[in-house]
Amino acid sequence: MRSNATAQDVARLANVSQSAVSRTFTPGASVSEDTRARVMIAAKSLGYRPNAMARSLITRRSRIIALVMGYLENQFYPLVIEKLSQKLQKQGYHVLMFISDGDETDGVLDEILQYQIDGIVMASAMLSPDLARQCADSGVPVVLFNRVPDTSAFARHTTSSVTSDNREGGRMVAELLLSRGHKRIAFLAGLEKSSTNLERERGFSDALVQAGASLFRREVGHYSFERAGEAARAMFAGVPAAQRPDAVFVANDHMAIAVMDVLRQELGLRVPEDVSVVGFDDVPQAAWGAYRLTTVVQGVEPMVEATVELLHEQMQDDAQPRNVVIPCRVVERDSVRAARPPARRSPKTSARTKTPKPA
User: Fold this and answer.
1) What is the pTM of this model?
2) Do the Cβ atoms of 285 and 259 come closer than 8 Å?
């Protein structure tokens, strides 16, 4: 049977003030161990449960963070959900997840704002100027995860973001492939409008140009497993060996795995002997023995830490939005051609002619 005990009943039984009861059940609030123990014993004996919704009406803080996802197909984002939820829960927050229709989030905005949320994290989803303005008008801070605000001045000045150094990651991939002697280097893009794809491709292309090379071929996979497979077929199926790419940088691991499956299982090509493949993210599947994918590592832990820190900042009225860029690195496995050992120099024979001494 549900208990009708109130906070006043708990305070009376524990012989403490009602505010002490409130602090005991408020994450992060200051309360002595003796008081906490007495309150918890009294609450248990009365069957008392704090009413989070009622408390939010008083504090005007629900301690609910809305997490908006564009899609969950990419194996990188389940990791993000797990780490972000754990981090927020340890700090007394609750995560309410919304799945948007594709990469646009405006469709779920009305639903999100019906809740008295304290903040929004958007992952694998774009923030439109209209959505940025409505959130700002409602006093709800927004942090973009693995995205940057669009080019509108309003979004840039009202929204914080956390990303990997996507441009640097793309540059490192280009340098790696060039260093392994690749000449016909292709790029398989994700979503054309997403900032992650734009930055990765920009860094990749710039590094090729700086080295006197150029992009050999380009297709679009839309960050989809199936469409990445189609793009791989368009790049390689029925193409003579001399006219097909000898290396391909894929905008994320999810698509790179699809590319490797098509190359090896359908087209009979060897990775990396015929084609080197590089991804981006370092999802757990990238290290599986069947793939051993060389990829760019996005640090989930530091990205989550920065996201939660930005949320706390933005929930303070005087905090200014800022953008945090987390360094990334390449982890090399078996999907890229090995470096050629330096050519051995033949030893120089320097026979010295000795001049006979005079008798």
Assistant:
1) 0.79
2) no
User: Do 111 and 96 meet the contact criterion of CB atoms below 8 Å apart?
Assistant: no
The residue written with tokens 């992009």 in the block is 215
Alpha-carbon span 92 to 27, nearest angstrom: 5
The CATH number linked to 283 is 3.40.50.2300
Sign of the C-alpha dihedral computed for residues 152, 156, 160 and 165 taken in this order: positive
**CA torsion angle 264 270 275 280 (round to 10):** 60
Per DSSP, the three-state class of 266 is: helix
59-81, pLDDT tens digit by residue? 456 788 999 887 788 889 999 99
Query: Stretch 258-275: mean pLDDT, rounded?
Result: 97
Domain housing 221: 166-299
The model's pLDDT over 95-141, given as tens digits with 9 standing for 90+, comes to 998 887 655 566 677 678 777 788 999 887 777 777 777 777 878 88
Question: Is 295 found in the same domain as 305?
Answer: no
With both helix axes pointing from N to C terminus, report the angle between 225-236 and 253-261 in degrees, rounded to the nearest 10: 50
- Who's near 326: CB < 8 A, 6+ residues apart? 162, 163, 164, 165, 298, 299, 302, 303, 306
